[in-house]
Write a structure and sequence with these properties.
Blueprint: H1 3-18, H2 28-57, H3 67-93
């Protein structure tokens, strides 16, 4: 498959993904709807990630994050990284 064939295949797949009513044409509204859907998916993923970050930092579960909780989270992350590096070094050394 040459580069032109690959490009043509990619264009066809893009048209198929955007052509919501499968009429063989991609209307402006179909593109707009696809963009809106993608923005919604991204926003939902960001909200989930933010919730996970909050859970990670909010150690006492009171709904707010204190400096001490941020510090504890950072220290725990640093320890995990340090342990991982130490484990890797030990593995390389054959220990």
């Amino acid at each position: 498959m040459g580069i032109m064939d690959a490009a043509s295949d990619l264009v066809e797949k893009g048209k198929a993904a955007l052509d919501a009513d499968a009429d063989g044409k991609v209307e402006v509204q179909e593109v707009a709807d696809a963009v809106v859907d993608r923005v919604k998916e991204t926003a939902e993923a960001a909200a989930v990630a933010a919730g996970e970050v909050k859970k990670g930092f909010d150690a006492d579960g009171d709904g707010s994050v204190t400096f001490d909780e941020v510090k504890l989270t950072a220290e725990a992350a640093a320890k995990k990284v340090s342990d991982a590096v130490t484990g890797l070094v030990d593995k390389v050394k054959g220990e």
